[in-house]
Amino acid sequence: MERDFSARILPALYGCCDHPERWRSVLDQICDGVGVRSAAVQVYHRLGNSLTHGWQERDSYSHDHAAAHDRWINNPDNPRLTINPDLLPKSPVSVLTDRERFGQGSPMLAETRRRLAQIGLRGGTGLLLEFAPSRYLSLILHRRIEDADAIDGNDVRMLRDLGPHLQTMARLSTKLQSAQAAEAALASVMDRLRAAILLCSPEGEVRWHNHAAARMLGEGAPMRIVERRLRAESAEGRHRLQQLLATAPGQEIASATIEPVAGAQIQAVALPLDALGGDATATWAGSGSDVALLLVDPARPPAFSTGAVMSLFGLTPAEAQLAIALSHGLSLTEYAAQRGVSVGTVRIQSKRILDKTDSRRQSDLVGKLYASALAPLQGQIH
């Protein structure tokens, strides 16, 4: 019966890889299926012979009685968090009762049983597996205090059946969570770029875009996102956009200027994903034919941060402000009038800036600012 139950629960178990919120339901099924009172899955980090608790989920009963469980057993004083390597099997997946974990007659065994008795539990039987260096997953079961010792053998068999699947699932979950964390970090970086970035299907469906795209494609722009589709306002713009999105297989880059009906023009570069990543972008969803669009409004200069320009080029605050003003097209005379200082003072500052940036003339300085690592960013990063 236990092995039949183990097989039946596998689809729900693997569903926890990308839906960890389903663990409680799975643990409820385990409690009902093998007749235990409490089940908990936990992740630990090992340092020496000690385990440090990281993440956990419990069945509904244990969740409802969490305060009492945390007071008596689920806390840093839990004797189970100290590992005796001599008592652990050499297998990467270990299933142990408390008697096997501590040894018969151990004071730690007596203390664990005393604590469990305070919350009406006995046992327990636990699975401990290492799924990454010094990272462990534990699935532990407890029966009611009145249950007989002999029943624990069923728990051991069930956990041994699930052990290989739990190890695979833990590794899959780790990879998935790492990928999700990397995706979130990359999306956050993309949101801090000056260029608008969109991922579109050949039909113009917008699968993803950064914050700059939402700002750039607002009211009055020559292109807009309407009902999750990218649309150009003019007939010529629609033609050019269609050409960008229908780049030929293997074509590395395509570009166009989308002219406005009213407002600023947009420069667009299309990067077909199949050219960027080859087979890596071809998935079940067929996203290999998608196109990444990079959009820039040439009328909007980079929003350089004074502090970042100071740090990158070794300038004073006043020099950094002047360098940014020059990159935005202001003359020395215009900047002096704007700041309320003499043109002579500004000329002296300008000469110091050219010396510090190894620039022969103002155009060299502006070119270095536009070619710097700061130019793609939206100014100050918060």
Description:
It is a single chain. The chain is of the alpha+beta class and 382 residues long. The protein has three domains: 2-182, 2-Layer Sandwich (Beta-Lactamase), CATH 3.30.450; 194-296, 2-Layer Sandwich (Beta-Lactamase); 306-371, Orthogonal Bundle (Arc Repressor Mutant, subunit A). Helices cover 43% and strands 21% of the residues. It has helices spanning 2-15, 23-34, 60-64, 66-72, 98-102, 107-117, 152-190, 211-216, 235-245, 273-277, 306-313, 317-327, 332-339, 343-356, 362-371; strands spanning 38-47, 50-58, 93-97, 121-132, 135-144, 196-200, 206-209, 223-226, 229-232, 254-258, 266-272, 291-296. A five-stranded antiparallel sheet has the order 2-1-5-4-3, sandwiched between helices. A five-stranded antiparallel sheet has the order 7-6-12-11-10. Strands 8-9 form a two-stranded antiparallel ribbon. Strand 10 (254-258) and strand 11 (266-272) form a beta hairpin. Helix 1 runs parallel beside helix 7, helix 11 (306-313) crosses helix 12 and helix 12 (317-327) packs across helix 15 (362-371). The longest helix has 39 residues, at 152-190. The relative contact order is 0.07.
Count of DSSP E strands? 12
Uncertain stretches? none
Could you say what the CATH topology of the largest domain is called? Beta-Lactamase
> What general form does the structure show?
elongated
DSSP helix fraction: 40-55%
| Major beta sheet, strand line-up | 2-1-5-4-3
Measured by DSSP, the beta-strand proportion falls in 15-25%
- The helix tally amounts to 15
What would you call the structural class? alpha+beta
Mean pLDDT: 88
